[in-house]
């Protein structure tokens, strides 16, 4: 039985993640695959605390709808059918590395919403490049569409 290639892409709403999503959908079309658009969330400053933290301002249903809306806003109708959205609680790099288990490729934008603007790569793209269990493609927002 043939396995459908799974392409995981990190989505955070940044220009480079939008470019990464478009690239991942084009690639999936070429290889007959499907795209898993993954977005991560965590409570700021609580990553090392042992008890589960609660963010009273976070609405998971709203965040899931936001992810779906982001994917729809970036893609045309023809590419949207290849995409399944997933919202996962946790550190973005760890969530993406975990999601990439068994994937054909992990696609991320070169930089997210971090504050160090001169960096060529953001911390998440650097981490997944070092730890992903599959090939990683890092997309800059100014890369040509074709």
User: Uncertain segments of ≥5 residues (pLDDT<50)?
Assistant: none
How would you characterize the largest beta sheet?
Answer: 5 strands, parallel
Give average pLDDT, whole number: 80
Under CATH, the homologous superfamily of the domain at 10-43 and 57-92 and 110-139 reads HUPs
Estimated structural class: alpha/beta
Number of helices: 5
- Gyration radius (Cα, Å) is 15 Å
Proportion of beta-strand residues: 15-25%
Number of strands: 5
CATH architecture of the domain at 10-43 and 57-92 and 110-139: 3-Layer(aba) Sandwich
Order of helices and strands: EHEHHEHEHE
What fold name goes in the CATH topology slot of the domain at 10-43 and 57-92 and 110-139?
Answer: Rossmann fold
Can you walk through the features of this model?
It contains five helices and five strands. With 146 residues, it is α/β, with parallel strands linked by helices. A five-stranded parallel beta sheet has the order 3-2-1-4-5, sandwiched between helices. Strand 1, helix 1 (15-31) and strand 2 form a beta-alpha-beta unit. The model has no long low-confidence stretch (mean pLDDT 80).
Task: Give a short overview.
By secondary structure, the chain is an alpha/beta fold. It has a domain at about 10-45 and about 55-90 and about 110-140: HUPs (Rossmann fold, 3-Layer(aba) Sandwich). The protein has helices spanning about 15-30, 60-75, 75-80, 90-100, 125-130, and strands at about 5-10, 35-40, 85-90, 105-110, 135-140.
Give me the secondary-structure topology:
Elements: E1 6-10, H1 15-31, E2 34-41, H2 60-74, H3 77-80, E3 83-89, H4 92-99, E4 105-109, H5 123-131, E5 136-139
Parallel strand pairs: 1-2, 1-4, 2-3, 4-5
Helix pairs in contact: 4-5
